[in-house]
Structure formats: structure tokens, C-alpha cells
Amino acid sequence: MPDDEVALLEFGDFLGGSGNNHIDHHRDMRLDIEEMSYEDLLALSERIGTVNTGLPEEDVKNHLKTRTCSGINLDM
Questions:
Q1: Backbone conformation region of residue 12, classed left if phi is above 0, alpha if psi is from -120 to 50, else beta
Q2: What are the EC numbers (predicted)?
């Protein structure tokens, strides 16, 4: 993307809308890895294997929608 352009991301209701009233319905299923020992973390990694947590940056760039906006002349 050229330096003189801007990218905007719209999440809509994905992150709970405009309010901060998100409820984590799966909180009791989450692991607290901060309190796990090194051996526990190794055992966990053997159980779950490799996890990919996101798209490559190139895929994200290829799927972004772009719009060009121009200024409005208010002089009449």
C-alpha cells in the first residue's frame, strides 16, 4: 500500500460491538499457561501439536477491500 493511502478495518459485532460488554462463554475451558511448569508446557505441546493462530500477512493484504475517496468541493 502506498504511503499516502490509509487502510481501515471494520469489525462490526465481532468484538462485541461498540460496548465493552463482551462475555467469555468459554472462560472455564481456557488454560492458565502462566502457572504451568516447563514440563507441563512440553507435555501440552505434545498433546496439541502445532497450532497456527493466524493468516499469513500476504493473505490478509490480498483479501482487503480498498476504496478511494475524493474530497468534495463546497465552493459554489
A1: left
A2: 2.3.2.27
Joined grid coordinates for residue 47: 498433546
DSSP code, position 54: S
Block means of pLDDT (10 residues each) for the chain, 76 residues, are 69 55 80 89 87 82 82 66
Helices assigned H by DSSP within the chain: 38-48, 57-63
**What does the DSSP 8-state code read for residue 69?**
-
Q: Are 59 and 52 in contact (CB under 8 A)?
A: no
pTM for this model (two decimals): 0.34
Identity of residue 65: K
Residue 34 per-residue DSSP state: G
